[in-house]
């Protein structure tokens, strides 16, 4: 038995949800470029869960079910008020999502119908939790979700307490489409491993949030913004990045396990960053990002991944950096739940082997003789 470090290249399951073939990402066979330009996030949720694009009546039905499910239990709001105000936001999200299960009497109902209803609740409630977490941290009262608007619109409304601009809603919608699913990434794998024991969907999503939190995965978008803030201005980029490259340090937002010729989502986020910067009349963050890309790609051949330009996009949209990875989760919960439902449909416990590299033939020595 020989281990493959990081399971690189190992095919661990079959799935019909999303694919990465020759660097092209598809959701249910639809190219991400097509979906990014044309689809709403809600259409993508339907596509991921049910395998095809919805008819208008089906989309309307999904929108009203998401709206109806978007209020979170008051006990969860009360718990969030008790979290330390400076706690890690992903840790707070992980705890709050885990707590949702305690107030859902169907949490352990494993019928496909109940699990689909719980997927709807999780998708509807994550944005409400994230907005409430953010407001409570800032000493503000949470704002209840409104009905009849999209997830992108509702989230920005609950976050800021005012109607968002069409432009902000459109940009966030596109970011949510781009982040929705990504084959067997680490957080989706964590979700599938958890539910393959026939544990419940809340446990699966809680595991996934724990995996997404790390800076080698979803946490990289926040880490990119930390780096941009540390650099401070365009004229500091060169020295800062050169020092990191010379010291062989990782540059956050670059590289990918699967894409070696570039992440197809990055160009959409780059364009969004450029367009929003121009409209805002301040392109410094965008120009800093472009210069970093030139240096990292030029010297290391590494291309930006989905997390790199999302940092400047979210900042231009006025979203605090502590929420960047949580927004990733608001989107990715659609993919996590699609994979969880797929895992339940054709389940077998996921239990690989380890190549043992420890000591052998040890003999027990009584404690007084060690
Ligand atoms: C949504 C997402 O999860 S997208 C990924 C988000 N994560 C990041 O942006 C963090 C930065 N990137 C990385 O850490 C990695 O590229 C990962 C985690 C994405 C992929 O990891 P792996 O497939 O294991 O690649 P690995 O870390 O082995 O890198 C291969 C080589 O490229 C180098 N490398 C990879 N990424 C980077 C980077 N961002 N900056 C500098 N060097 C890098 C490694 O140091 C290694 O070099 P070596 O062979 O000389 O030791
Ligand atoms: O697939 C991966 O390894 C990471 C990634 O890009 C994602 O989850 O979107």
Automatic annotation (TrEMBL):
**Its Gene Ontology biological processes?**
carbohydrate metabolic process; tricarboxylic acid cycle
What's the catalysed reaction? oxaloacetate + acetyl-CoA + H2O = citrate + CoA + H(+)
The record's PROSITE patterns line, in alphabetical order, gives: CITRATE_SYNTHASE (PS00480)
Q: Which GO terms describe its cellular component?
A: cytosol
What are the protein's UniProt keywords?
Transferase, Tricarboxylic acid cycle
What's a single GO MF annotation on this record? citrate synthase activity
The residues responsible for catalysis, as annotated, are 256, 307
Q: In which pathway does it act?
A: Carbohydrate metabolism; tricarboxylic acid cycle; isocitrate from oxaloacetate: step 1/2
Keyword Nucleus assigned to the entry: answer is no
PANTHER family for the chain: CITRATE SYNTHASE (PTHR11739), CITRATE SYNTHASE, PEROXISOMAL (PTHR11739:SF4)
By sequence similarity, the record places it as follows: Belongs to the citrate synthase family.
NCBIfam families for this protein = cit_synth_II, PRK14034.1
Name of the protein described by the UniProt record: Citrate synthase
The organism's lineage is:
Bacteria, Bacillati, Bacillota, Bacilli, Bacillales
């Amino acid at each position: 038995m020989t281990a493959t470090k990081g399971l690189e290249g190992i095919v661990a399951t079959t799935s019909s949800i999303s694919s990465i073939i020759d660097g092209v990402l598809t959701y249910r066979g639809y190219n991400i470029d097509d979906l990014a330009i044309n689809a709403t996030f809600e259409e993508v949720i339907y596509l991921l869960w049910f395998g095809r694009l919805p008819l208008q009546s089906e989309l309307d039905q999904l929108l009203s079910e998401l709206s109806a499910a978007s209020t979170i239990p008051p006990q969860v709001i009360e718990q969030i008020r008790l979290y330390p105000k400076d706690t890690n936001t992903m840790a707070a999200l992980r705890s709050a999502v885990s707590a949702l299960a305690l107030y859902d009497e169907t949490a352990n109902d494993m019928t496909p119908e109940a699990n689909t209803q719980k997927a709807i609740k999780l998708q509807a409630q994550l944005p409400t939790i994230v907005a409430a977490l953010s407001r409570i941290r800032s000493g503000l009262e949470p704002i209840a979700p409104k009905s009849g608007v999209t997830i992108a619109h509702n989230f920005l409304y609950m976050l800021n307490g005012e109607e968002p601009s069409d432009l902000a809603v459109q940009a966030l919608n596109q970011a949510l489409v781009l982040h929705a699913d990504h084959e067997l990434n680490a957080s989706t794998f964590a979700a599938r491993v958890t539910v393959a024991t026939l544990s419940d969907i809340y446990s699966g999503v809680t595991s996934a949030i724990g995996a997404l939190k790390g800076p080698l995965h979803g946490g990289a978008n926040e880490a990119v913004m930390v780096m941009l803030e540390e650099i401070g201005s365009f004229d500091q980029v060169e020295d800062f990045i050169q020092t990191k490259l010379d010291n062989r340090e990782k540059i956050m937002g670059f590289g990918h396990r699967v894409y070696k010729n570039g992440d197809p989502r990055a160009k959409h986020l780059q364009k969004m960053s450029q367009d929003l910067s121009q409209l805002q009349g301040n392109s410094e963050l965008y120009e800093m990002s472009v210069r970093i890309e030139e240096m990292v790609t030029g010297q290391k051949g590494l291309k930006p991944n989905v997390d790199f330009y999302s940092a400047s996009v979210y900042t231009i949209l006025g979203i605090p950096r502590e929420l960047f990875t949580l927004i990733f989760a608001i989107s990715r919960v659609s993919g996590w739940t699609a994979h969880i439902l797929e895992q339940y449909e054709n389940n077998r416990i996921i239990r690989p082997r380890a190549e043992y590299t420890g000591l052998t033939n040890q003999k027990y020595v009584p404690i007084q003789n060690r």
